[in-house]
Write a structure and sequence with these properties.
By secondary structure, the chain is an alpha/beta fold. It is 20% helix and 9% strand. The relative contact order is 0.05.
């Protein structure tokens, strides 16, 4: 009886083993023995179990996604409509025609770098050459004085076609020291063209057709009106008397028939050659009331080319360091 019970128990155990998944898996593997695969069944089960557990954990948290994160948003808040308005402004600016800035006309009325505009439609310092406070407008076929920057101290317009100098040409040019208009066709100069210039020291107007010298400020140190048509009435009476700093007076090649006295004591050079001076007074240069008076500064007097005989007035030179150059016979 005991043997029968043991036999039945053994059958039940075998049956349960055959029905179990582990046995079926092993039976399956046994069918492939001819492939000679060396597989560790235990490790396979464990690995599969890990994978299944990981997949289950993903399913439990569906909101977690694995992938590349989007780039951060660096955009700044923009007021609504600002981009559209900016685009409209840009389009409007593109439609506007380009217009050059106009520079105020007139002398001394501009502080811009290129100076005021000329009648030729360009700034003075593009038409001429500006170096510091000096303006050079030489040989440009100008027929009028261009408006100058207010800081101009030296102005040159030589070898042009100027015919007249107006009062307004140098108006309000309070820093202008030198004007040189050599070799033009100037025949007329406004009486007040230079007298209102407080800093003017040098005027060179040689090689023109001027017959009348205008009034000049007392600040003059050099006057050169050589090679013109200045005659007997072409110089104001006592025109140079108050010019305490006058050093050089050049009136060569004109039509003068007298020496324009009185002359300031500061004068160093007086050029009057090739005029029509026929006589000289003894007090032209010296003071006959004071025999101790000596005029050391006036060393250069040119009277050659005139019909005057210097030997007839020897007393006229006793105060001078040198005898004038001229005819002595």
């Amino acid at each position: 009886m005991k043997m029968l019970v043991r036999f039945l128990l053994a059958l039940l155990v075998v049956k349960a083993a055959v029905a179990s998944p582990r046995f079926s898996r092993q039976a399956e593997l046994d069918t492939y023995d001819d492939t000679n695969y060396d597989v560790d069944i235990e490790n396979i089960d464990l690995e599969n179990q890990d994978i299944y557990d990981y997949e289950d954990s993903l399913n439990e948290n569906p909101e977690i996604e694995i992938g590349t994160l989007p780039p951060p948003d660096y955009s700044y808040p923009v007021q609504e409509g600002s981009l559209e308005e900016e685009q409209e402004v840009l389009e409007h600016e593109e439609e506007l025609p380009l217009k050059p800035q106009q520079t105020p006309q007139g002398s001394g009325d501009s502080g811009v770098l290129m100076g005021p505009n000329t009648q030729k439609g360009m700034p003075t310092c593009l038409l001429c050459t500006c170096l510091g406070t000096s303006v050079y407008c030489d040989d440009l076929k100008l027929d009028s004085i261009p408006p100058l920057p207010k800081e101009t101290t030296h102005f040159y317009a030589r070898y042009n076609r100027l015919t007249k100098i107006n009062k307004s040409d140098f108006a309000f040019m309070n820093k202008l020291k030198r004007i040189d208009v050599t070799s033009n066709d100037i025949s007329s100069v406004d009486e007040k063209a230079f007298s209102t210039l407080p800093a003017l020291e040098e005027l060179v107007i040689r090689e023109n057709h001027v017959s009348q010298l205008p009034a000049l400020p007392a600040t003059m140190t050099l006057i050169d009106a050589s090679h013109n048509n200045v005659g007997t009435r072409g110089i104001h009476k006592e025109a140079f008397k108050d010019m305490a700093g006058l050093l050089y007076l050049y009136l060569t090649d004109n039509h003068l028939d007298y020496i324009p006295v009185p002359l300031p004591d500061s004068l160093r050079a007086l050029h009057l050659q090739r005029n029509n001076i026929q006589s000289m007074h003894e007090d032209t240069f010296c003071n006959l009331q004071d025999f101790n008076y000596i005029r050391n500064a006036l060393e250069d007097i040119r009277l050659d080319g005139n019909p005057v005989n210097l030997s007839r007035t020897p007393q006229a030179y006793i105060c001078l360091p040198r005898i004038p150059v001229g005819t002595l016979i």
